[in-house]
Amino acid sequence: MPLLLTGCLGTKHLKDDEKLLVRQTTRVSRKVDQEELRSLYVQRPNRRFLGVPSFHLLVTMYYAGLKRYNKEKFVRKKEQAEKKFDAKIAKTTNQKKINNLQFRKQKKIDKFNSRIENGNQFMQWGEPVAVFDSVLVKTTLDRFSNYLFSKGYFTNSVTTRINTIGKLVTINYRIETGPPFIIDSIIYRIQDTTVNRIVSNNKSESLLKKSERYEESNLSKERERLDLLLKDNGFFDFSRQYIDFEVDTSALKNNKVLVILFIRNPAKRGYHKQFEIDSIRFTTDAGVPYPGYSRKTRTYRDVQYRYFENNYNLKILSQRLFLTPASLYSRSNTYNSQRQLANLDAFKFVNINYDTSGGRFIANIFTSPLDRYEWSNEVGLNITQGYPGPFYNITFKKRNIFRGLENFEFSGRIGVEGVAGATGDQIYRSTEAGVNASLLFPQFLWPFRGGTQIRLGKYNPKTRLSVGYSFSERPEYRRTSTTLSNTYTWQNKRSTQYSLALTNISLINSTIKDDTFNTLLNRLYEQGNYNLKRSFEPSFVSSMIFGITWSKDYGTYDKNAFFLRGQVESGGTTLNFIDPAIITDQGLQYFKYLRFSLDFRKLKILNKWATLAYRVNTGYAWSYGSGNSLPYEKFYFVGGSNSVRAWRPRRLGLGSVPPPLNENPQQKGLFNYQFEQPGEILLEGSVELRSKLFGFVHGAVFIDAGNVWSSQRTISDPNTPAKGSSQFRVDSFYRELGIGTGFGLRFDFTFLIFRLDVGIKAYDPAREPGDRFVLDKFRFWKPYANTNSDGTMRGPVKEPVIYNFNIGYPF
Questions:
Q1: What is d(CA 441, CA 488) in angstroms, rounded to the nearest whole number?
Q2: Do residue 788 and residue 656 come from a single domain?
Q3: 3-class SS string, 706-761
Q4: Is residue 573 part of a domain?
Q5: Which of 115, 314, 468, 606 might form a disulfide with 610, Cβ 3.0–4.6 angstroms?
Q6: Which residues form the domain of 134?
Q7: For residue 219, how far is the Cα from the chain centroid?
Q8: What is the pLDDT of residues 701-713, one digit of tens each?
Q9: Residue 788, phi then psi, degrees to nearest 5
Q10: pTM for the full model?
Q11: How far is CA 89 from the centre of its chain?
């Protein structure tokens, strides 16, 4: 029955002699990567919309577009567009205007060519019906056999079984891999004695291992490894074409393989030449016109620098240059020099080439400066926990401000949005503004010796000095914060980054404007919620922060990737060595605390249309000292568009402590999520299945879980009908995880991804045991309790779904 349902939509688009391919399966006798095998299919069944049988949205879209498609119409429009732009170009002699018109013309023509060749937009978003083709089955069989052969299964057998029911076809591929062939011996035949010595000294790094299964891909990888190894040892003109392999299965028995590696000499020279750098010439302003002037030359650390104006600190440039005269050519050092010079954010391009004419080997480095001043403006709409409101951002950068490759950066922001009042149901305006200024130095500001700074240059060291001021105003309060920080960053690999903030100081001041709100804070303080009240007292916060980030291909979204970030923070460390009275005498409270966090994310590509992403995020904060409290900004929170999406931002928790019930008669039985829930222990995770639907529209389904807890005390509100525990306990925390699920759409516009998620509560730990599963109690619209006009209940409470709007993926 599912088979019939799957194909019923597509068969009406078939011709009389055609059949519909509805499914393909592959059975293999050994552990072979099934996804790689599936990627070899030459023909594929039509995709289903979110996996629903008989619902082929893309097929429907394609044929809906085909009915309205008129190829001749697009041909005519293309011709009209060409004539229109040609006429405009002919009327002007302004080269800048001509270039602009030529660009617009080509963009328009490309659009029409796409319509002519691939159909209209609906046809391009959709797909035609998958017509079964026996010739393509044979091609798939050949692909499978070649793939298995490349994996060392030389005696593989691939057969197929085709089942036909009416006009519906399923294909079953059965694969017998046969025994794998194992590498028994590796023989090196290298004519050049110097090359032979280098290869022999690095045999331990070889990707060809005895007693391992033969894989053809390892031959290619070994060829690339040897090519880089030799080019890092001076063989500038070495090429991979000199490396060859022979695989012999006849010389040995019992499925053993003999691999022979050849490195041949050039035909003309008869040997491989090692190149030694004679001199280095660095042109810092290539492509910059200075009519009537000639470049000056200055030698620093054996490098000849050429320039019209001496705009750069040669000491800093030399720290990012890993080439030296009288040393052997190294491709890795060349690449690292190019990359580290580009990391300075001072040059449009960095090119390094070598001149071998005249019997010399000269390294030429060419850079062209970026614009010294850079402005950007951004106007948009705030989409957070409140009602949307406008914002404006401005950024300014001045490069090479002190001619030492330092960059000055300034940013400002102001935004307005509507928020619910803390003491009522009205919507008020919330204003937020802030400015930040930073100086970024391309080295560590630390009394290292010159030789040490040069050795550190390969780690892309940077020092950032920042000062900032933020302001927020709501009807209940006004809050300001002044920050000062000194942060060092570096990396030992492109995938591993480190940061150390030795100084991170904030002065926070709040003014309560509403007496009702002040009374509310005092009441919450008496009930045990000390954190909220303390957060509105003048404060001095100082800390040291160390963080490590590992990542591989994260942010590309088209290949397997992972991301791991760990952070340790020590607050009030310096106050252990000085008298805290210096702070308290100024009317400020201070904090001493330790804070740890770990964030892990992974992206797994399931196929060309689907991706599985998951995340685990944890944290622990511990306060010590007389105040025994954390700064409010250092607590953990759960809920929102990048967390557990079935709860409003920062509103899930603590533990199983229920929020107070809503006093509004229309919302009787619903919790009142007016206040954020700060916790000292965080645990949350998410799993999300993402799939391309059509065009730029992607879909997702997800499950989120998480909560925050206190580490020591239990908080409960005596006005709530049920008591709960806010304290983290190993034997019960898993029963206090809030669980949400939902679905969403992602609109990929290339330059940004707009996201809409619908979060639905599945398990609410704030409810009484036995009533915590609430997946069947949600409503999309009018999320109020089921009450009569007099406020009495006439049915079970319906949980509201949470709509999340944001930019980018949640993780």
A1: 10
A2: yes
A3: EEEEECCCCCCCCCCCCCCCCECCCCCHHHHCEEEEEEEEEEECCCCEEEEEEEEE
A4: no
A5: 606
A6: 2-66+128-176
A7: 32
A8: 999 999 999 886 5
A9: -80, 175
A10: 0.83
A11: 43
